[in-house]
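Consider today's protein:

***
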Amino acid sequence: MSKSKKRALIIVDVQNDFCPGGSLAVARGDEVVAPLNELIEEFLERGEPVFKSRDWHPEKTKHFAAYGGAWPVHCVQNTKGAEFHPALIDDMHIRVVSKGLGDEDSYSAFDGTDLALQLRRLGVEEVSIGGLATDYCVKNTVLDALKEGFDVKALENAMRAVELKPGDGEAALAEMREAGAEIIHSKLSDTADNGNRDPIIEAYIEGIDRTLVRDKLRLTATQRVEDLMKFQEFADELRRAGKRARQ
C-alpha cells in the first residue's frame, strides 16, 4: 500500500501592514484570507502542520528606507501593523515563524529561521504556500522550499502581488513554475471538471455553505450512503409532484 506524502501549509506574512490600510498595503491583500482560512481548517482537521510566517522587524533596520533600505516602515515588532490580519484563523496548533529580526531583508520564510528544520522533524515532504506578496515573500519562500527539497504547491488564488512594475505578479508565478512548483487553485469551484459542471450547480456553487461541506466530509461511508438515499427519496418525490402538477 502506497503511503501518501505528509504535507504542511505555509501562510506567508498575512499581516495588517500588508493588507488594505496598512503602511505597505498590497492591493486586495485581504482577499487571501478566505481561501487560506479554508485550508487552515482542512489541514488542522487532518492533523497536518500549519505555519504562519511574519515580518518581525525592529524599529530601526537597514530594511527600511529611513536607514538605507528600500521599504517604508512596516511590521515593527509588537505593533498593530505586525499582527496577523484579524480575520485569519488563529489556533494554538499553528506554528509562527518570525523573520527579518535584524538588518537583513528576509523575504523568504526560510531566511534566518528554523522552518526547514521544523518541517523535516515533522516528516513533511510537500508544502502548500500562499499569502503576501506573490512577487516578494511568497515567491522567495516557494523557491527556497524547492531548494530545501520539498515538493511545492503554490496557491495562486491565495496570494496577491505588490506589482511595483506591471506584470511582476505573473512573472513571479512563471519563475515559481519554472523552478518546479505546481501552481494550483484551492477553491472548491476550481476542480478538474471545470467547464463541464451542471449549470444548476454552477448557479449555486458560490453560495455553498463550506461548513456544511466539511461536516459532510466527516461522515462515515455508511452515513453518507444513508444521506444519499434520503436525498434520492426527496428527489423522487419532487419528480412525482411535478408530474402530478402537469396532469
